[in-house]
Amino acid sequence: MNDENGENLPQQDNAQEATPVDPAAQLETLRAELAEAKDRLLRTLAEMENLRRRTEKEVADARLYGVASFARESLALADNLRRAIAAFPVKAREELEPHVAALLEGVELTERDFLSRLSRFGVKKMEEGDSRFDPNKHEALFEIPDESRPAGTVAQWIEPGYMIGERVLRPAKVGVTKGGPKA
After folding, report:
1. Average pLDDT in the 41-49 region?
2. Where residue 63 falls among pLDDT bands split at 50, 70, 90?
3. pLDDT score of 71 more than 80
4. Residue 166 resides in a domain
5. What's residue 80's pLDDT?
6. How many domains does the chain have?
7. Which end of the chain is more exposed for a tag (fewer CB within 10 A), N or C?
8. With 90 as the cut, is the pLDDT of residue 49 above it?
9. Which secondary-structure segment (H or E) carries 78?
10. CATH code of the domain containing 150
11. Which domain holds residue 170?
């Protein structure tokens, strides 16, 4: 082949020249690709296991806490049943007419049944008593001067609190001591 000036140009072969393949280098490349694929597989399996665990936890939480808003709204019923029972003084209960005593007994049974139904869904009433004020579980409505007890002790329960599982459904409304010795 000649160029414009008539000089001979070297001929180019369209077939690519075969480069020698080093089997050791090719084996190392394949091993690296295999290691990378194994790593990706293990990471994907770990992610899937984490997703499975997270999903199981979310389903369990949904089962346990799914009724929380309904239960919270239903607590007013428990409060009203307790108020109806408390409206009868203990001394007057002995002198009640039979039909009024039966009504009171029916209200007490209804309250116990309602609380047992709530407990089937994980709702538990907080235990009353002298305990240290916990802002996560109690709502302080007022302070009571009492030198005989340590400051910050729950002295009076106004409204009971409820838990659902490990969470506070409704904090207890309480009166707290002030002025006593430090706990």
Report:
1. 95
2. confident
3. yes
4. yes
5. 93
6. 1
7. N
8. yes
9. helix 68-86
10. 2.30.22.10
11. 125-183
Residues β-bridged to residue 182: none
157 in any annotated domain:
yes
Q: Quick one: CA torsion of 147, 132, 171, 124, rounded to 10 degrees?
A: -130
100/155 Cα distance (integer angstroms): 33
CA 96 to chain centre: 47
Q: Which of 179, 163, 183 is nearest to 171 (CA)?
A: 163
- d(CA 87, CA 180) in angstroms, rounded, equals 33
Please report whether residue 151 resides in a domain: yes
Tell me whether residue 16 is in a domain: no
Q: Give the sign of the dihedral formed by CA 34, CA 38, CA 44, CA 47.
A: negative
- Residue 41 CA to residue 138 CA, distance in Å, equals 50
pTM over 0.70: no
Close Cβ partners of 126 (under 8 Å, ≥ 6 residues apart): 137, 160, 161, 162, 163, 172
